[in-house]
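Subject: for your reference before the review

Hello V.,

The reviewers asked for a structural picture of the protein, and I figured it would be easier to keep everything in one thread rather than splitting it across files. Below is the amino acid sequence we used in the manuscript, unchanged from the supplementary table.
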Amino acid sequence: MKRSFFLILFLVLFSTGVNAESFTNKDSSEVSTKVSDFFNWYLTAIDEQQYKEFQPRFVEDKNGMTTLDYSIYMANLKKYHFSDSLIQTEKQYYQKCIENLEKIKYSDFNTKYTDLDQFEDIDCDFGNSYRWTGGQEAPDKMKIIKVEFKNNDTAFITVSYGSSTAGDDENSYWGNLIVSMKKIAGLWKITNL
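And here is what came back from the structure prediction:
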């Protein structure tokens, strides 16, 4: 998958309607590489069903109650170029779930919480969709469609994602998103997806 991913990236960089000159400067190359690094990690983790890599895990706290451990997930977001502010926003996203889990004994949670409706009721149904691409269908390929710079320290990268099983034509890409990046202390960081 990695080999085909980088081939797609190479082809996109040099065959799309994006101005080729924009890819000759260091910043264009850097933002493209960082977005590609993130999606390569994310889609590989999905494909290999390494859930703890890209979402929190339910664990027992020191009092025998349920909580979330997202230490591995947050470390990966940092490793793959997320800004500190976006990581904090992501932690906040799970706060309501954590508050609800604090009321549930871990032994009860492990045996009684088996239905999606139960996870929805406690705002912990994050395992039902893919956070960074949305929906329930797992994408396994991506390509960069466009790189735009608002100014010297703000960039917007348009990404398309889809499924290899649908073929290699444009119809095999079924989702798009825009990745916002900002240069912070001289390094490009993802600030929004």
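For the response letter, the relevant points are probably these. The first strand starts at residue 57 and ends at 60. The helical segments are 2-15, 26-47, 51-54, 71-79, 84-93, 95-101, 106-112, 116-121.

Happy to draft the paragraph if you're swamped.

O.
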